[in-house]
Amino acid sequence: MRLEKNIYYLKIAEVVAQRSTCLRRRYGAVIVKNDEIVSTGYNGAPRGEVNCCDIGLCKREAMGVPKGERYELCTAIHAEQNAIISAARRDMIGATIYITGLETDGSYANPAPCMMCRRFIKNAGIVKCIGMVNGEAKEISLEEVTA
């Protein structure tokens, strides 16, 4: 059986996520334009800094910080951000970003970008976001959720 295109790119993002150095969740992102991969990225510590997986400690986990909160305490750069900084803006204008996240038990994590990543994605010129949701490709709004 031939994979549908969105699943194909999301599965590539899932493989990219295997490079993640995060102990909480592994994320992979793939930027695609005109059916060509422009860039990939995974979440992890900045180049040259100590990875959480190498020291066996997640600062936020140790402090009991709930998922999705207090990102400023996290050492990692998000997968979306790493994919964006590895590409030229001209190559991202009109592109789609594919995001797959994995929980520590191997189940799929929420692929929706955080508010900061939504801003990065929009500013990069990326117009569409597709995430892996329970094994299926779903379009994710890039509009910021306001309270």
Explain this structure to me?
The protein has helices spanning 5-17, 52-55, 59-62, 79-85, 89-92, 115-124, and strands spanning 25-33, 36-42, 96-103, 108-109, 128-133, 136-139. The model has no long low-confidence stretch (mean pLDDT 91). The termini are far apart. The relative contact order is 0.20. The chain has 147 residues and is an alpha+beta fold. A hairpin with a 4-residue loop joins strand 3 (96-103) and strand 4. The protein is globular. The protein is built from six helices and six strands, in the order H-E-E-H-H-H-H-E-E-H-E-E. Helix content is 29%, strand content 24%. Strands 1, 2, 3, 4, 5 and 6 form a six-stranded mixed beta sheet that branches.
The succession of helices and strands, N to C, reads: HEEHHHHEEHEE
Mean pLDDT: 91
The major sheet is characterized as: 6 strands, mixed
Shape: globular
DSSP, total strands: 6
Unreliable segments (pLDDT under 50, ≥5 consecutive)? none
A few lines on this structure:
By secondary structure, the protein is α+β, with helices and mostly antiparallel strands. Helix content is 29%, strand content 24%. The N and C termini lie far apart (43 Å).
